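Allow me, if you will, to draw on your knowledge of protein folds for a short while. I have a record of one protein: its chain in single-letter code and its fold written as discrete structure tokens. Could you please explain, in whatever detail you think fit, how the structure tokens follow from the sequence? The record follows directly beneath this note:
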Amino acid sequence: MRKILIVGATSAIAEATARVLAARGDTLYLVGRNSEALAAIAADLKVRGAPTVGVEVADANDLAMHEAIIQRAEQTLSGLDTVLIAYGTLSDQLACQKSPELTVHELTTNGVSVAALLTRIAERFEARRSGTIVAISSVAGDRGRQSNYVYGSAKALVTSFLSGLRQRLRKSGVAVITIKPGFVDTPMTAQFPKGPLWAKPAQVAAGIVRAMDRSAGVVYLPGFWRPIMFIIRAVPERVFQRLKL
């Protein structure tokens, strides 16, 4: 039985993942910004089998609150061995291009605040020489594209930060897992037309739990995104600049 802190628990992917974890009897501490959504999700998870479900309303951009959140999760769950960071916003690229302030806000929400939270968690788990850290990045972080380079830059920060943590914490026995979803059909992407490359949250959630149990390193979800992104990264810059991506 794992004792899991989920930050960004009201996101579609996080909720779907929590359902899988609850069904197998893991204990959960959910953090999100929407109190009503958190309460509804917690009630559902208890019915599904989670023996303990704690909730906390908080904004991860409030960096000063990170330590207190972790402490309350530990107290509620009588320990903490796994953290899933699953929050973020889908940046409005055109609006960011016109607003340095909005750009900084989006980079903070999707990148800087995640790095700050990871730093707190890593310090704790490293001292204990155990634990599992899972954070959701994105295939968008593999290469900057004109259509979403603000969001992609933040996710590139997360990916690189996790890579360094994984190398640093390996000798301490702490697993660091980077999840890179592609297109996922969630409320956040409701306005986009869907096609064969799109996945459902439950599909991504199953992959996250498998990665968690196997202490995987970098996981693309669905898996076909790995060769796709390999090709995209391999395109020469002079060619890439001409592509409409």
Notes: The longest helix spans residues 100-128. The chain has nine helices and seven strands. The mean pLDDT is 97.
